[in-house]
Amino acid sequence: MNLRRAQPTESREVRAWIMARHYSRTAPPGYAVALEFIEGRERVGAMLLGRPTSRELDPRQWLELTRMFFVDAAPANTESRGLALMRKWVRTWLPGIRALLAYSDPSVGHRGTVYIADGWACFGRTRNSGHGWANRPGRRVPDGGGATLQEAPVG
After folding, report:
1. Cα 3 from chain centroid?
2. By the 8 A CB rule, do 125 and 145 touch?
3. Using CA atoms, how far apart are residues 111 and 100, in angstroms rounded to an integer?
4. Hey, is 42 helix, strand or coil?
5. Strands 148-153 and 33-39: what pairing?
6. In this predicted structure, what is the pLDDT of residue 147?
7. Cα 56 to chain center, whole Å?
8. In the chain, how many domains are there?
9. CA torsion angle for 45, 39, 16, 61 (degrees, to 10)?
10. Are strands 148-153 and 42-50 parallel, antiparallel or unpaired?
11. What are the tens digits of pLDDT across the range 42-94?
């Protein structure tokens, strides 16, 4: 499996590919980097990295993995391998980034296993306060509360 950064002219197509396959059928409109994972001549996965949603984190030092998708036919451990390739890419091409952040959604059975397998640390769960992202029209928070927060140092 090879990692490739999508060029700006290609990144919208990568985002659309993720949206068509991801369980939420959404992807944040703002992202800094679109990465795709190629096996042979086929795209088997993609990731979108962007500014952290937390306004308390410096976006010059933090990146958030906002969406990740790999095809179901991919071999075991593909997601964790993809995370390792992504971290290596960030270390090489974005040296100012010191840490990565991701959220897993336990309301759909995601427990962060792929992050733990790649050495990320779990830092608890978010709270649904009724303010922020979910208070805008057309947005919903799944029943069951917040997401599980994961963090990984880049180096």
Report:
1. 15
2. yes
3. 17
4. strand
5. unpaired
6. 58
7. 19
8. 1
9. 50
10. unpaired
11. 999 999 999 998 888 899 999 999 999 999 998 888 999 999 999 999 999 99
The residue assigned the tokens 């795209």 is 43
- Whole-angstrom Cα distance, residue 68 to residue 73? 15
Task: Tell me the residue range of the domain where 10 lies.
Answer: 2-153
Q: How far is CA 70 from the centre of its chain?
A: 11
Q: Which CATH number characterizes residue 108's domain? A: 3.40.630.30
C-alpha to C-alpha distance for 123 and 150, rounded to whole angstroms: 6
Pick from 4, 32, 22, 52: which is nearest to 151 by CA? 52
User: What are the tens digits of pLDDT across the range 19-28?
Assistant: 999 988 888 8
Q: Give the pLDDT confidence of 119-136 residue by residue, as tens digits.
A: 888 877 766 555 555 555
Among the listed residues 82, 71, 73, 67, the one whose alpha carbon sits nearest the alpha carbon of residue 34:
67
Residue located via tokens 């306004």? 55
Please return the burial class of 104, using the count of CB atoms within 10 Å of its CB with bins 0-12, 13-18 and 19+.
Answer: buried
Tokens of 115: 């992050």
Residue 142 structure tokens: 């799944």
